[in-house]
Amino acid sequence: MRLPAAPLIPDGDEAREWAERELAGTVYRVAEPTPFDRAARAVGDFFLSLFSGDVPAAFGPWLAVAVLVIVLAAIGVAVAIWGRPRRAARAQAAAALFGDAERRSAADLRRTAEAEAAGGRWEAAIVLRFRALARALSDRTIVPATPGTTVHGFARSAARAFPGETEALARAADVFDDVRYLRRPGTPDAYALVAALDERLAAAPRPQRIPA
């Protein structure tokens, strides 16, 4: 009866050679992480270290600079995306008064209106003075002169802020419409009405309650 052969026990060098041949097989090569896997793991470990506080001391200053740059960039993008439409809307509102482009300040409009009145050009003087009135109330954020607002709509809004001037505001709006749209001739009395109203509203204290 033959006894089974004793198992072959390799020496140290031979065992290492067998192990290298085994690990070189296709199954083990497929299981190894790829360079992309290693890079992804390194990036993930880095971000996890940001939240865990386990950041190497050598990266401390550079990390602070990198975070600051990222925050500033995010703020810049937010301003560029949301700030620009708001600035454009404000610029559009400031550039329009009752359907016409108008960028002059209330003071400039008043000076020009006075010059037109001095020359007897009452129609232009009335239009400019009412626009000065509207620009002044809009700049004081009492009555907004938004694009599309009509003269009478503005007068009604201003009357809610200054109830004592309701009749004068309605008459001034009528005078504006007469000379601007109905092409009726302006008069010194009509200009004096609008100018006096503008002066009273400019000198009036800001209402405690601004109507919506």
From TrEMBL:
Annotated Pfam families: DUF4129 (PF13559)
Keywords per UniProt: Membrane, Transmembrane, Transmembrane helix
Protein-glutamine gamma-glutamyltransferase-like C-terminal domain: residues covered: 129-198
Transmembrane segments: 59-82
InterPro entries: TgpA-like_C (IPR025403)
Name of the protein in its database record: DUF4129 domain-containing protein
Source species of the chain: Microbacterium saccharophilum
